[in-house]
Each structure stands twice: as C-alpha cells, then as structure tokens.
Amino acid sequence: MEASLHFRGVRIPSDHSGTSRVAHSPRMRWLSSVASPSRSFHAAVENACKGGGLRAKSDGKRIEAVLGEEEEEKQSHGGDDETAAAAFTCVMKFGGSSLASAERIREIAELIVSFPEETPLVVLSAMGKTTNNLLLAGEKAVSCGVSNASEIEELTFIKQLHLKTAYELGVDPSVISGHLEELEQLLKGIAMMKELTLRTRDYLVSFGECMSTRIVAAYLNKTGVKARQYDAFDMGFITTDDFTNAEILEGTYPSVAKRLNDDWISDPAIPIVTGFLGKGSKSCAVTTLGRGGSDLTATAIGKALGLREVQVWKDVDGVLTCDPSICPNAEPVPYLTFDEAAELAYFGAQVLHPQSMRPARDRRNSC
C-alpha cells in the first residue's frame, strides 16, 4: 500500500461553541478543534509517503494539504498486524492544551466517540503546564530540604489541578491519588540526595502522562465508553538509555502490536496510551522521547499496527510561514516536501516532533 501524509484543518467562526462539527465524504473529513474555539489543526499521518510533496490549498476558512497520492485502503498485512489493523482504524493524539481542564477533557471524550465508523487508539500528553511544573518542582527539591518538599508550590499546583479535574469529571480520585503520593515521596528523595539526575528527571516528568491518561480513561468508562489505560513503558516501548532524549528501538513495533492486538481480542476497549514515555533497553528505567515526544509515540503506534491514519491535534492551522504569535498574517506554507517538513520540525517549527514522521514514512517499506 502506497503511503500518504495529510494535514487537514478548518477555521471555526469565533462564536462557535461545542466540540466537533463534521462533514463526511469518501475522501474528506473536517473536524473542529478542542484546543481552541477559533482554530483547529487536524494533522493526519497516513503511512507517510516517501519522496512525495506536500501541497495545500485554502479558501480562507479551511485548509487542505496532501502529501503523495491517496490509495484505496486494503489489508495487506499478515499475522497479528492483520487482526490489529482490522480492529483499529486510526491513532488520535492530543496535547497538553487539549487536556488543560475538565471541560477540555469532556470535549475530547465527545470527539473520540463522534465518529462511529472509527475505532481509535488515543495518545495523550500531560495536562497543560504539568510537565513544566514537575521539572520546576524537581529543581526546587534539590535545595529546599526534605521537610519543605511537601510545600513546593508546583507540587501543590499539580495536586490541585488533577484532583479538581477528577472531581469535576465525577472520577474517583483514587485513580491518581497513589501517583500523587508517590510523586511527593520522589521529591522528598530528591531533596534528601540534593541531586536531580537525568534518569530521575525522566521518572519525575512521567507522572504527568500517567495521571492524565488515567483520568481520561476513567472518565470514558464512566460515560459508558469502554477504555483501557496503558503506560507506554509497560506495553512494549523499548528505547535507548539516553535519558531525556531516548530513541525508540525496532523491537518496540512487534511488541506494541502484539500487546494491543491480544488485549483487543480478549476484551475490546479503546486504548488510552501515555505519550512521550518509554523504557530503557538496558536500565529498564522510564525514559522520555524529548519535548513533543507524544507525537512520536502516536506515529510509532501507527507504524506498529500498519494504520492508515494518525491524527495529531494542534491549536494552529498547520505549517505556517512564520510564528503566528509574532506575525498575525502568517499563512500555511503551500508546498513542502516530506524531508523539508521534517527539517522544519528539527530546526524549531513546533507543529510536529522532529522524529515523529520517521515511523510513518518507514511504513512504506513494509506495506
């Protein structure tokens, strides 16, 4: 199956309210953003095409960009991949701004179930501002002393945010209370050792994704949508031991496919997976994939299962000519080769993680 990369978005009028507005056709789908009431960015990576070009058109309200030629969907994989590909239709990834509050999480939940023809896997980042606050808490713990570790301002913020969100969603706080207690003990340990190593830093920030996925999975189950939470480091994501910037190893793909496929066969449920995280191949410690690594988690799962589509939800309208916060007249870039898009990401354009397109592009060789 030839592969293709799609970036699709739609601008929503500023008075728009609610979550998703959808128009269906055999080739097109427009979705509103849960991250902003006036903007959306739906980036769908469909087994990204090697050597293609990204072309775009806009009528001022919506943007369509296509890399390569779209092929008819066909099942050409054998073994476990065939069953898994038949079970799941796409990966949906949501970042921290889409998880900033209980209201945003409700919108995500509605969005996930708004396409009855889809059976998605969901990849989540930490709730908004959580990763930064975890890092700040760790840095303060180094010098604050053990007796003061429990009073670190950022720890209080994290506790209040997650417990308030769980309460407003009607979710049992026990799904995260153990992690909050463990987080506090970790900060006390850092204060005692007076050191924050890269290995400890990765373990520290992992609490964000571990808690956000548990809250969302619990809320989906509460609303009658069967969901199952996964920590990426326990489901087969094996990485190098380069803490804070680990790389996914090839053994990840068959392991992840088998785990998801086996679980689906025994008890079908929407997987809610922690982005950004993995397990070191030698240390067996928690690793992270670098900032924005949840995008990479999403495309890696897409590659593992041979899926046609990975949707990366952002709060901007695609790859723009400049930073829209600096230049309000920024426009979508009309044409990019695949390598140019990857290079832009590598040198600072924050639409996608620099390495996130590699797994999708690699799928072409095994299709």
UniProtKB/TrEMBL annotation:
EC number: 2.7.2.4
Pathway of action: Amino-acid biosynthesis; L-threonine biosynthesis; L-threonine from L-aspartate: step 1/5; Amino-acid biosynthesis; L-methionine biosynthesis via de novo pathway; L-homoserine from L-aspartate: step 1/3; Amino-acid biosynthesis; L-lysine biosynthesis via DAP pathway; (S)-tetrahydrodipicolinate from L-aspartate: step 1/4
Biological processes per GO annotation: homoserine biosynthetic process; lysine biosynthetic process via diaminopimelate; threonine biosynthetic process
EC top class, as a word: transferase
Signal peptide: none
Record keywords: Amino-acid biosynthesis, ATP-binding, Kinase, Nucleotide-binding, Threonine biosynthesis, Transferase
Domain Aspartate/glutamate/uridylate kinase positions: 89-363
InterPro entries the record matches: AceGlu_kinase-like_sf, Asp/Glu/Uridylate_kinase, Asp_kinase, AsparK_Bifunc_asparK/hSer_DH, Aspartate_kinase_CS
An MF annotation (GO) of this entry: aspartate kinase activity
Pfam families in the cross-refs: AA_kinase (PF00696)
SUPFAM superfamilies given in the database record: Carbamate kinase-like
GO cellular component: chloroplast stroma; cytosol
Catalytic reaction annotation: L-aspartate + ATP = 4-phospho-L-aspartate + ADP
Family: Belongs to the aspartokinase family.
Protein name: Aspartokinase
Annotated organism of origin: Rubus argutus
